[in-house]
Amino acid sequence: MSKPEFFVTPGYGQQFRDRLHYSQAVKIGNRVEISGQGGWNDELQFPESLEEEIAQTFRNVERTLAAAGASWEHVVHVNSYHVGGFPDEVNETISRLYRLYMPNHAPIWTELGVEALAHPDMHIEIRVTAIIP
Question: For 88-106, how does the pLDDT look when each residue is reduced to its tens digit (9 = 90+)?
Answer without folding.
Answer: 999 999 999 999 999 999 9
